[in-house]
Design brief:
The chain is mostly helical. It has one domain. Helices cover 79% and strands 0% of the residues. It has 3 helices and no strands. The longest helix has 22 residues. It is flat and about 55 Å long.
């Protein structure tokens, strides 16, 4: 079966784009390990607090209405 050149060209372009992204990322400043660790810990703490918060009543009511509508269809 002959190989489609347009597919090969597309794959080569994707590979070149990916390599270009790596080059762009090299210019991004890196945080020292301790700073990255501290930021990660604080973000996990904030997220854990957010997950424990109750869902607002208006949102729960909206979900109930949508479920009721789905069942009736």
């Amino acid at each position: 079966m002959p190989r489609r050149s347009d597919v090969t060209d597309d794959l080569l372009q994707q590979e070149n784009d990916f390599v270009g992204l790596d080059a762009q990322r090299a210019d991004i400043a890196r945080l020292p390990g301790t700073a990255a660790q501290l930021i990660g810990e604080r973000m996990r703490t904030m997220y854990a607090k957010l997950v424990r918060e109750p869902v607002p009543s208006p949102l729960l009511e909206l979900v109930r209405q949508l479920e009721t509508k789905e069942r009736s269809e």
